[in-house]
Design goal:
By secondary structure, the protein is α/β, with parallel strands linked by helices. The protein is built from 13 helices and 11 strands. It has a single domain, classed as TIM Barrel (Alpha-Beta Barrel), CATH 3.20.20.190.
Amino acid sequence: MAGLRNNKMMKFYAHRGASADFPEHTMPSYLGAIDQGAHGFECDIRITKDEVPILWHDANMKKEAKSAAVIANKTYTEIKAIYPAVMRLNELLDLAISHKKSLALETKHPVPTGNRVEELVVAELNNRKDEISKSGIDVAIMSFSWFAIEKIKKMNPTLKTVMLLHDFNQKFIRRFTSAQVIGPSVAMIRKYPNLVAEIKNSGKELYVWTVDSTEDLQYCASVGVDIVMTNRPAHARSVLGYS
C-alpha cells in the first residue's frame, strides 16, 4: 500500500450502494455504504409514469421484484406497491447531504420520455443547490447518451457531467463531448493502455466503473484514476489504505 499512498488518493463511490452486501438501490445498501466508508454514492435514475425520479437500473422490474412491470408505464405508488424498498432521488439526496457523501447520478437511456429525466434531475439539483453547496459534496450527472450530456449543459452549464463510454464509439464521443469527466469501464482502460493518459492530458477527470477486485483497484490507483465505482466499498477502503 505504500506505493499507492505516494499518489493522490483515489476516491471510491458505492455502486448502487454497497450492492455486494445489500439489495441495490435501497436504503440499507446506501446506509451500508456509509458504514463501509464510501466517499460517495452512485445510482441509476429512471422516471415513473407520473414523473417521479427513482433509483432503478433496468427498464422493467424483473430482476429486483420478479415482476414484468415497466418503470415508465407505472406510477410511483404502483411501483412502491410492487417493490416497497424502491427509493426516490430526493431520498438519496437527503441521505447524501446529511452524511456528506458525493453523488454520481446516471440517467438511463433509451427511454420513451426522451430527455425528461434530465430535466427533472436538473430541476431537483437546482432546487437544492444551497443545501448541496453547504454540505460540500460533489454532484455529477452521468450518461451513456451524448444528447443527454449536451441537454444538461444547456439547462445548467455549472453542473458537472460524466460522459460514460461504450467501446465501439469511445474515440468519437471523447472528441465531441462537453463533459468535464470521462467514464470508461475498468475493462476498457486495461484494453487500451494509452486511454488514461489521453483522458488526463485532455484536462478531464476520470471516473471508472465497476471496480471490485484487488488487482483492478490497485491498477486504477496506480494510473491516476480520480474516482472508481465499486460494489464493495469496504474492500476498496482496505485495498487503497484508507484508515
